[in-house]
Amino acid sequence: MLIAKNLHKIYNNGAKKLHVLKGIDLEIEKGEILSIFGPSGAGKSTLLNLLAGLDIPSKGEVYINGKDIYKLPEDNRAFLRNKTIGFIFQFYHLFSEFSALENIMLPGLVNGWKHRGDIRDRATNLLRELGLEERLNHKPSELSGGEQQRVAIARALMNEPEIVFCDEPTGNLDSKTSEEIVNLIIRLNKMKSQTFVIVTHEEFIAKMAHKILHIRDGKIV
Question: How far apart are CA 188 and CA 182, in angstroms?
């Protein structure tokens, strides 16, 4: 469902050029868990952002379901991201003034769901599936790190995306909670056949994937 061809990313830093990605080719099948594994500074997060349509490559192509996403107008690419893609961040990026339920509802509101009640029901069901039904009215500051990440996962799943990108999803969690989050991703993959692409530098997370992509110095090794 996703193909990347000859991806390059170059940042201009004054007179210097930083060549972060140096010709990445990959294919991701529907229902697959792919881990992008490597040390800090290898280009993992940059690659993830390009695959998810969050940044623009200096060179190369990304196809999702046969569409070259970087040939789409920005509005169309934003619509595709909202409809087809979910994104889970290391630092959760929850809105502090909103409850867990309201944070999860946001993608549905942006997506233009007609009935607010349907959005609320969908968000409530996701909280129930992730074991957070009793926390739906809690603000992020009232939740543990693991609970905040579960809310972030539920938000990423709100619009039933075909592919979910995870950028170091356990980077801020202790080992026990990290294992719970990994098991949750595996369960969601099996239940819903959703595709997951996970950036990590932790070996135990990489090994739970169907396929591991080792990246170092901007290249697949």
Answer: 10
Whose structure tokens read 């739970």?
A: 208
In single-letter form, the type of residue at position 31 comes to: G
Q: Is the pTM of this model over 0.70?
A: yes
Tally of domains within the chain: 1
| pLDDT tens string 181-207 | 888 889 889 988 889 999 988 888 889
Starting at the earlier edge strand, list the strands of the sheet with 2-13.
16-28, 2-13, 59-64, 67-68
What is the extent of the structural domain holding 23? 2-220
Q: What would the pLDDT profile of 43-99 be if each residue is shown by its tens digit? A: 999 999 999 999 999 999 999 999 999 999 988 998 888 889 999 988 889 999 999
Give the CATH number, domain containing residue 177.
3.40.50.300
Q: Where in 45-194 does DSSP place strands (E)?
A: 59-64, 67-68, 85-88, 163-167
